[in-house]
Specification:
By secondary structure, the chain is an alpha/beta fold. It is built from 16 helices and eleven strands. Helices cover 43% and strands 13% of the residues. The longest helix is centred in the N-terminal third of the chain and has 29 residues. The N and C termini lie far apart (83 Å).
Amino acid sequence: MSEDQKRQLEQQLWNIANTLRGKMNADEFRDYILGFIFYKYLSEKMEMFANNILKQDKIKFRDITPKTPQAVEFLEAIKEESLEKLGYFLKPEELFGEVAARGKGGNKEDETFDEAKTNFILKDLQKILINIQLSTMGTESEEDFDNLFEDMDLNSTKLGKTPEARNAIIAKVLSHLDKIDFKLEDTESDVLGDSYEYLIAQFASGAGKKAGEFYTPQEVSKILAQIVTTGKHKLKSVYDPTCGSGSLLLRVARETKVGNFYGQEMNRTTYNLARMNMILHGVHYRDFDIKQEDTLERPQHIDKQFEAIVANPPFSAKWSANPLHLSDDRFSQYGKLAPSSKADYTFVQHMIYHLADNGTMAIVLPHGVLFRGAAELHIRRYLIEQKNYLDAVIGLPANIFYGTSIPTCILVFSKCRKENENVLFIDASQGFEKVKNQNVLREEHINKIVDTYRNRKEIEKYSHCATLQEIADNDYNLNIPRYVDTFEAEEEIDIHAVMQEIKTLEAKRADLDKQIDVYFKELGLFF
């Protein structure tokens, strides 16, 4: 698919999303449109899988009805294999295309949508979404599909005041989506996955502060992913303790092959979105383990270590800071807890605990973590002086995240650092392009950051490898200007030349005054 076709598809999907929008907030109609796209994906995947099994019987899955000879045997055999390989099962009449056609009404071959001809499908559709979950009961994939569609309330008055109005809008959306070919048979491309990411980004841009709950801008994700995959041709595992929609985990998989994906997300709606995102990107249900809980208070992967860890946690979030946590293996060695008003270093400690000895972690944080004192200084000093885990500090431009304009930084940690006598500081705060009211990192900005990190380059006014002694001399204050001098000296002023220029100007003014006096006398004007 060409870039033009891709953009056309993305715009088409966004237009369909706006059909649903009405007066709903971006995060509300997001759940519906992404849920319907996911249902379409499950249907098409199911149909392709079943048709492949039925090939030798020369019958199509969609054509199986109760009247089909051996229909029960066919469906039972397909269901058994589908639950094993795909993790779920849909009956032929439950396929997206069949429901969309029933909803549209009229001639099945007619592509136009006539609201007057729609059939009532809400009840059937709600039942089908529940059936997808029920089909997994008692199987390995049960947890991955549990309540996956719970945020799609088809009876919500936000979709329409009456059942008929709600049915009409949903039938219209399904009809439009049904016309789109996501090219699932093309295993070399990920048209649907890319489109899904595009929509998530679009919803994030309209969600304001709420965007940070589920989305990290792709440009920042790319930097984090390329940093943690440096020198890696394959990763056994990647983990995100605040995984949101799962986009950051999936970004890592674009850089190198990943064995297993792990994540934890506190928000239930976003947790559902993350699981959908994994499945939709072709990650097998056995290869991801996404949990829903508070990561700091109730970690769900406490017995595991990971080769790569990435995170964009909520900036300066509140947490309990309960003294009981001092006996928690994640925090006990530090002797102090991060303040309850700022959990930034709590996330760092949590991630360090889960980082494998051969692993790398990269976390986005507000600039305050570089210089704040008290307990945070104590933790910062311990990580550098006692553990020597800090590998790099990267300053990013302000206003690149949705919902906040504050400048941020990336801290990179590794337990087995190759360059263990210094810490790389990069000041990338000026490398961006302003687009409307948002600053955007372009490819050249991303490449410069990653190349500087990977080769530990020292570039004047951009990067510097600070020795551990330099950092100690600065009392473990990591504020980037202390290490990267970006000061631009002002051009020296020649005072004598300026004085001479002033004298010349005064002489010219005196001449002009004399000429003006002559003109006044000629006009008979005297002052």
